[in-house]
Amino acid sequence: MNKMSKTVVVGMSGGVDSSVCAYLLKEQGYNVIGVTMQIWRPENACDVSDNGGCCGLSAVDDARRVSEVLDIPYYVMDFREEFQRSVIDHFAAQYVKGKTPNPCIECNRHVKWEALLRKARDIGADYLATGHYARILRLENGRYSISASRTAAKDQTYALYALTQDQLSHTLLPIGEYEKSDVRRIAEEAGLPVAHKKDSQEICFVPDGDYASFIENEPGVTVPGPGDFVTPDGRFIAKHKGITHYTVGQRRGLGVAAGERIYVTDIDPETDRVTLGSDDDLLTRTVSADDVCWMGIDGLPYGEKKRVKAKIRYNHGGEYGVLETEEDGNVMVTFDKPVRAAAPGQALVFYDETGTYIYGGGTII
Amino acid sequence: MIYLDNAATTRLEDSAFEAMLPFLRDEYGNASAVYDIARRSKKAVFGARKQCASVIGASPSEIFFTSGGSESDNWALAGAYETYRRRSKEHGSTAADSVASESVVSCGHIITTAIEHHAVLRTAEYLESLGVSVTYLKPDSEGYISPLQVTGAMRPDTFLVSVMTANNEIGTIEPVREIAAAVRNIRKDVLIHTDAVQAFGQIDLKDMAGCVDLLSASGHKLGGPKGVGLMYIRDGIKFPPYIRGGMQESGRRAGTENIAGIVGFGAASEYALSSLDERIETETVLRDRLISGLKKIPEVIINGSYSVGDHERRLPGNVSVCINGIEGESALIMLDREGICASSGSACASGAREPSHVLQAIGRAYDESKGSLRFTISHRNTEEEIDTAVIKITDIVMKLRDNRR
């Protein structure tokens, strides 16, 4: 181990991106330690790994093999408790309230950059690195922010908006400098055994995408029962299976026949009512968010406005608008053009007006 | 490297290594064949059987070689269950059936403990899934199971009592002889098994044969090779095979013998027996030195039973502690970075640590058990190594605690 160089813990999922991340940092002269977070519970370890999720047992095997090729120390660390509390419990609680949470945001925020970074520092690391397609930027105002990766096709900035300045100052994201095709080529040239592994999809702990039955099987969660589908003006249409089965913007699987295309436009956990409306009913120009985290700027005084580009979900291309802070500290973006299906529980992430780096973000209300 | 994980596995003893060498290449005969080279293999296995038998005062015909401790434990429980079921069938009705006749036919009852190795616990759970009822006795705060607890749990349909000789995590040595005697006092037809994997060759077990009916041991915990273990089955006991398909091991364990492994196990057993008193002495001194060093760190709890010099109630080489305010997982990694090999209980498939069922059973809170570390000493360790380890562990604990402030 080179005592002069800095030590970095690389969060290794067993996939090609985090493997190349470890490789690049080693090439750059860091003391690299590979770590896989154990987040699955023993009884479903097999489901997760069979379904190509990111952190199952086969992921451990892959990450271990890559670490052997790179000749770096490798450890598996237990994060089941943190993952359960910060990600799964939160996910279930939000769904029960009729929201559509993004668990990757919670995992990044509380598991990777809180618990894992803490353990990384415990074992003497200076930095935490991951295989995200994003870059860390030091701005002229002295603050850190996150900007899109070199490749527009892969943008993983959205789920990273909640990182703090301290966390960012201890983070390395080398993959952001590359295209996905470069990453695969580097993996191949370096002889990494995961060069051709397919990308993981879906939420890792719900590999079959059936959120409603996942939540039903969570111990301690009381799932709301059936309720009413109603029209935007409150007229009864039919009974529905329970609000956890629906998300704002959903069209398929409603079980309601209608002449025109209808969508879920609102979910009310108080009355268990799910409003169905037309595509137009999903459009809105203003989106508000609470639980706001500031990144590139340290806030926006009440009454001031700022031009931004903002995203309302992970794969949203972004839309221009005006950001302002409300009296209670919540934020609101008024978009130039209406955006479609802003789902409560998803994140509103706002970037500078060129869309280059993150100003901040919050949870859509 | 300072190796303090001898309960996980041990370095191969030189005598075992030497004894194995011919059988790895030149002496390749299959012990079941008729010709000379085969006879030499057969003779070697017989010699090893004798060597292993001596450790527990058994006769060679009572020793059956297996692939290791886990196989032996699985076999003991599954075999006892099969024996019970056959006996119930043959006799038509047993004492158990008359008691249970009102409801369903009894599938029998096992008494074991909450702190057994997973090889016993998972097999017990498997048997539960087949209808067997299992009592998991909870130990006291030092990890002891008392004979009274065992007899108190006995039922008319109890067919097996399985209590480990010494615990792998906290080193507590169970009163297996007293437990066996108390059980026998009440019923003669209950099988008594002990998982002696951690104790075999580490403490005096010369009177163990006859006390119990079944005993499991493993080669690599006492300087033998990995991949070989044994089961002691008391003479006169009807006990079915677990692996079928050949007449090896008197028809009780099929499969061509792992000659080199068995020979290595035998040589290691002979060495363990002849050096037992010295090794116990050395390890106890080193253990006490490590414990007294660790006790200087504030907020350290020693797990299990402990008093200076004692090797009757705690394994001579076992040090198990819970260190408040740290995570054992981080400490282990930092120790690894410093070249010190330790553990924190049993490892799961991934290599991450599991919350310890043993520490839970002796009443440690989850947060306490997170800070657990286990160091297991062998006679090969030195005072200098222990002193270095104490310094490094102290540094690491202070650093980890500082990070949390």
Model description:
The complex is a heterodimer of chains A (365) and B (405). Chain A has 365 residues and is α/β, with parallel strands linked by helices. Chain A has three domains: 7-132 and 173-189, HUPs (Rossmann fold, 3-Layer(aba) Sandwich); 225-277, Roll (SH3 type barrels); 282-364, Elongation Factor Tu (Ef-tu), domain 3. Chain A has eight helices and 17 strands. Chain A has helices spanning 16-27, 45-50, 57-70, 80-96, 103-122, 165-169, 180-189, 211-216; strands at residues 7-11, 31-38, 74-78, 127-129, 134-138, 144-148, 171-172, 227-230, 236-240, 263-268, 273-277, 283-294, 305-311, 319-325, 331-340, 347-351, 358-364. In chain A, a hairpin with a 4-residue loop joins strand 10 and strand 11 (273-277). By secondary structure, chain B is an alpha/beta fold. In chain B, the strands form three sheets. Chain B has a seven-stranded mixed β-sheet, with helices on both faces. In chain B, strands 9-10-12 form a three-stranded antiparallel β-sheet. In chain B, helix 5 links the parallel strand 3 and strand 4 (133-137). Chain B is globular. The mean pLDDT of chain B is 94. The interface between A and B is medium-sized, with 18 and 17 residues.
List the helices and strands and how they pair.
The complex is a heterodimer of chains A (365) and B (405).
Chain A lengths: L6 E5 L4 H12 L3 E8 L6 H6 L6 H14 L3 E5 L1 H17 L6 H20 L4 E3 L4 E5 L5 E5 L16 H5 L1 E2 L7 H10 L21 H6 L10 E4 L5 E5 L22 E6 L4 E5 L5 E12 L10 E7 L7 E7 L5 E10 L6 E5 L6 E7 L1
Helix pairs in contact in A: 1-3, 1-7, 4-5
Chain B lengths: L1 E2 L10 H11 L11 H21 L6 E4 L2 H22 L4 H6 L8 E5 L4 H12 L3 E5 L9 H7 L4 E5 L13 H11 L4 E5 L18 E5 L10 E5 L25 H16 L1 H20 L4 E3 L15 E6 L4 H10 L2 E2 L15 H5 L4 H5 L1 E5 L6 H22 L1
Parallel strand pairs in B: 1-11, 3-4, 3-5, 5-6, 6-7
Antiparallel strand pairs in B: 2-8, 7-8, 9-10, 10-12
Helix pairs in contact in B: 1-8, 2-8, 3-5, 6-7, 9-13, 10-13
